[in-house]
Known about the structure:
The protein has 260 residues and is α/β, with parallel strands linked by helices.
Amino acid sequence: MTNxxxxxxxxxxxxxxTIDRPKALNALNQQVLTELDAAISQIVAHPDARALIITGGxxxxxVAGADIxxxxxxxxxxxxxxxxxxxxxxxxxEALPIPTIAAVNGFALGGGLELAxxxxxxxxxxxxxxxxxxxxxxxxxxxxxxxxxxxxxxxSRAKELIFTxxxxxxxxxxxxxxxxxxxxPEALLPRCKEIALxxxxxxxxxxxxxxxxxxxxxxxxxxxxxxxxRQAFALLFGTDDQKEGMRAFLEKRKAAFKNA
Length: 260
Ligand code: CAA
């Protein structure tokens, strides 16, 4: 398969996906979704990847949404298939055991914001504009936006963004807790790589278990979620890395983790 629109670079422990279709502001068409899915498979198969960063190619956009030209003639059946495909790809992204970081370097609208919302951490450039403008097109978010945005920000804020369709700027995104940090455009990727490298230096099995506890626990009653944490905590004491991590602390040296 040719990777025309989705580039995957793996450098040391960091995987970088660039959605690279700048002529259409990196809009997600069927081909982009297929290539993104394939890139996720490559990361799953890569033993050394410890964190993933996703960004947009070109100067203007992270991803400006699902491809409006492609969608415009869809029947209800085709729209259902497209939404199903988008949901499936974003669910696979969300289920990656390694932490994922959205480096939002410009427009993150519609499906673009939904892609960022399927990542664990979201950092934005000063130029970013984020929103779910679907109602302006007389549709609604179709790749999980009504659900992930609501879980992240609460119903009221999500409703405001979804009902008005108005994008917000980077400062507002940080103010409402959508973005973690606002960075100068040239500082965005270096900062995301810095965070990714820090995560990569920690115990990999522990990071994966922490992600699982947070994600799986979020959909459970507190009692069941705490049980999940308790079991995961105990399980980690069966790993070589736990022995190494605690021994290294006691011996006042840096731990050398093996992901085992
Ligand atoms: N789909 C297809 N093409 C798109 C696109 C999209 N979502 N967003 C931008 N493009 C294309 C434009 O059509 C244009 O192509 P041409 O040069 O061939 O005309 C090119 O990218 C550049 O865009 P603009 O000329 O519009 O650039 P701008 O700087 O004037 O405006 C923008 C930028 C405000 C982001 C504007 O492009 C825009 O509003 N885009 C659409 C955003 C949107 O509505 N996204 C939601 C899509 S629906 C969705 O995502 C459903 C879902 O939940 C799954």
